[in-house]
Specification:
The chain is of the alpha+beta class. It has helices at residues 22-31, 48-59, 86-91, 97-106, 125-133, 164-174, 190-201, 233-245, 261-269, 307-314, 335-339, 370-382, 393-398, 402-407, and strands spanning 3-7, 13-17, 38-42, 63-68, 71-75, 108-112, 137-141, 144-148, 156-158, 180-184, 205-207, 213-217, 225-228, 249-253, 273-276, 280-284, 294-295, 320-324, 344-348, 351-355, 364-366, 386-390, 412-416. Helix 1 runs parallel beside helix 2 and helix 1 runs parallel beside helix 7 (190-201). It starts with a strand and ends with a strand. Bound molecules: ligand EPZ. Ligand EPZ binds next to helix 1, helix 5, helix 6 and helix 12.
Length: 417
């Protein structure tokens, strides 16, 4: 099984360049099939989830030319299959974006239902609510979702919860629907804005992305485009927490500081120094750091995808911190792994009570999911002695060259097949 071996105790110092945003790229790749013309996408992260998504796009018949690790040309004119194979849905949840894209372009789609996962049930009722509002018939049969519509007509949709996936999926289905669709209580994450900007570069008419009300005026068709993905907010934040936890000094390049404001604010509350530049942030980890409280919320609140990483930093700060997970119901599974390294965290429902310790000690631990895996790497880099992290396949789904970037910062980490 794939694992990392980490010899901890070295403050990480130096520079790291952030890759393209995984969760923007997944929506943008699905959106790329909405036109029959060539689409050139740059700055895609070379991570497993993206590579699986490109396989799925090729599998339904589109032309996919991987120009290099970070650039792909896609042409959706040769799509012959409106059914996405189960294998792709089982490997990445974002395959469900094919429902919105295939429905939006061909008014027909069949996609296996996504499973829940380590962080929660993750239903898709709001996606279905949006598709039905646009006039699609939705049937669930044999573990698959069938969507079809004679005609897609604009609707006024009010989401019951703020959901990134449903906001993107309904945008994909509505861009060529007749009339003006309004989405209220929309998600506002940077990757929502990136998907909307990408669609607008193809001739879509989307306004308000980044606010909680998005207006989509349907167009007849979309044309080709060339587009570069924004930097990854969560990879940036992960390295920010790495600098804090190891008392290091890291210049994190190719970021959009505005997207990191909630993370910057919390690290500064803890006593760390965070310097902001046009396209970089520098984090200097304070020797003694203070406790603070976190509540994960939709953007611009503190991101749920940064919850494990900031909790590790808080577990090494003075005093007791309260971390409330406001989005998913099972996102503290890594706490029992951290306890093996000397972490003192008690979980009660969706609240973690974090008693800071002076330092972790190395142990063998297992990554329960993508972001928790990254958090355990941060803990191992701080810990005295050796840490072995098993099941690191999760980490490779969302972080490009993670161990290579850490070694370049002086971290002693090895990848074992
Ligand atoms: C996206 O997941 C991200 N994944 C997640 O990142 C991220 O944690 C999440 O957004 C929140 O920011 C991708 O973009 C591929 P949601 P998504 O729909 O879209 C509930 C990572 O580490 N909900 O915003 O699935 C849901 O249960 C991953 O990169 C419904 O109730 O998240 C959750 O409690 C992990 N009904 C909340 O909304 C629905 O129909 C937010 O989910 C949809 C969601």
């Amino acid at each position: 099984m794939e694992q990392y071996i980490i010899e901890g105790g070295t403050p990480l110092k130096g520079e790291v360049t952030i890759s393209g945003a995984k969760n923007a790229a997944l929506g943008i790749l699905a959106a790329s099939i909405l036109t029959d013309e060539d689409v050139l996408i740059e700055n895609i992260p070379d991570v497993n989830d993206i590579n699986v998504m490109l396989e799925a796009i090729s599998n339904i018949g589109a032309r996919v030319d991987r120009i290099d690790a970070h650039t792909v040309k896609i042409n959706g004119s040769t799509i012959s299959e409106l059914e996405v194979e189960d294998d792709y849905m089982r490997r990445i949840r974002a395959s469900y974006y094919f429902i919105g894209a295939l429905l939006g372009k061909y008014r027909k789609a069949r996609v296996p239902l996504p499973g829940g996962c380590a962080i929660g049930a993750r239903p898709i009722d709001q996606h279905i609510k949006g598709f039905r509002a646009l006039g699609a018939e939705i049937e669930i049969d044999g573990g698959s979702l069938y969507a079809y519509a004679d005609q897609l007509t604009a609707a006024h949709i009010f989401f019951d919860v703020v959901t990134v996936g449903a906001t993107i999926n309904v945008m994909l289905a509505a861009v060529m629907a007749k009339g003006q669709t309004i989405i209220e209580n929309a998600a506002r994450e940077p990757h929502i804005v990136d998907v909307a900007n990408f669609l607008n570069s193809m001739g879509a008419k989307i306004k308000g992305a980044g606010t909680d009300i998005i207006r989509i005026r349907g167009v007849e068709s979309l044309h080709g485009t060339e587009y570069a993905i924004i930097p990854d907010q969560i990879e940036s934040g992960t390295f920010m927490c790495m600098a804090a936890a190891t008392r290091g000094d890291i210049l994190i390049k190719n970021v959009i500081p505005k997207h990191l404001e909630s993370i910057t604010a919390k690290l500064q509350e803890m006593g760390n120094e965070v310097q902001e530049f046009d396209e970089a942030v520098r984090v200097i980890g304070a020797p003694l750091q203070r406790h603070t409280d976190i509540k994960t919320q939709p953007y611009p609140g503190f991101p749920t995808d940064m919850q494990p990483q900031i909790t590790v930093a808080l577990a090494l700060a003075e005093g007791t911190s309260i971390v409330t997970e406001g989005i998913f119901e099972k996102r503290f599974k890594y706490v029992e792994e951290l306890a093996r390294m000397g972490g003192r965290i008690r979980v009660q429902g969706n609240v973690a009570i974090v008693d800071g310790v002076r330092g972790f000690s190395g142990a063998t631990v297992t990554a329960p999911d993508l972001r928790a895996g990254a958090a355990l790497v941060i803990a191992g880099l701080q810990a005295s002695g050796r840490t072995r992290i098993e099941e690191i396949g999760f980490i490779k789904r969302g972080y490009e060259d993670f161990d290579k970037k850490i070694r370049a910062l002086g971290g002693r980490i090895r990848y074992l097949q």
